[in-house]
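Next comes one such specimen:
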Amino acid sequence: MHAPNAYKKFLLLFIALSSLLIVGCSSDEIKEEPMELEDFDEEIEIIKVWDESIGNGNEGQYLKLTPIIIGDTIYAIDHSGLLLALNKSDGEELWEVEYEEPVSGALGGDDSQLYFATYHGEVVAVDRKGGMEQWRATLTSEVLSPPVSNGRQVVIQSIDGKVVSLNAETGEMMWRYDSNAPVLSIRGTSSPVITDELTLAGFANGELVAFRNITGSPVWNAEIGIPKGRTELERLVDIDGQPIIRDDAVYTVSYQGKLSAIHLPTGKEIWSKQQSSYTGVDLGFGNVYVSTASGVVVAYNQATRTEVWSQENLKFRQLTAPKAFGSTTVVADFEGYVHFLSQIDGRFMGRVHLDSDGVRAPMLISDDMLFIYSNSGDLAAYKIAL
């Protein structure tokens, strides 16, 4: 095993077993206990529409096997390679295929195919209509984030700091970019984003880079985190959450770095705030929402960067990235509780419990339903009663 991968697994151990690893001005590691959940008066009724077991989920591995929704179908895969297609509205199984190989990064897709990555550093393309394999390509390292596709190319980011674009029809390489990967990073990578002309990718060195889709040539580079400090732990600045694009702005956050709004055409910074997160952001109600590394959910005004509210009663509960859903902002935690906060002031409005093994994968929203995939493989759809 190469030293960088060993370091990543070492840091993963801290993050998985302790609620938070705080890296400050010294090299001391401080473990904080997760806050106990308090009772509150529920203001909304949350209805579970359906739930379905997707094999064994992550099987105890530190993975984020995010499902994908395309049209009326939601697709999900577990760590052992069980791939299912379900009707989005009622959870009825449409088909399933078992690949019987360890899956590390899932799922991506386009109008005709789905894509997932294996622990062996392979990307597999399968037919959306029945899950039959179309092609596979071997990369240089393990992939932990979902591949993304615009139907013409498939873009994959691996844990060794490389981004690869493959021809969606054949799997042949179109271009590759090698970032300057640090020795130590949090286990995980950001999933790229594809626009009509550009591919955006965030890296463990704190850089957000925009590439031309056809050639892979860099268009601009923005620093979301700048390594500081004497130790490798203090210098962690990973971008692990997928950037969000709204109009001409890109919103993203890094660990021990910044929450930033970047001008999409030029890469110039519109505004930024010092912040630390290893999940990601979402937008809603004119706000940018972020789950910080310490478990505080914060809302910032999307235009002015001023703090609108913060919810500190979920500290050290290893929160997922926030998701704006109806009038609420939703986060899930390491014990499988799903918290619905008001987008106006951050107060608790509702809570459900999905799975005692917790939730790590980013949540999905489609047709007024919230889809959550738990660590042990429970895929559930919720809606808020009107």
In short: The radius of gyration is 19 Å. Residues 3-17 form the longest helix (15 residues). The chain has a mean pLDDT of 91. The helical segments are 3-17.
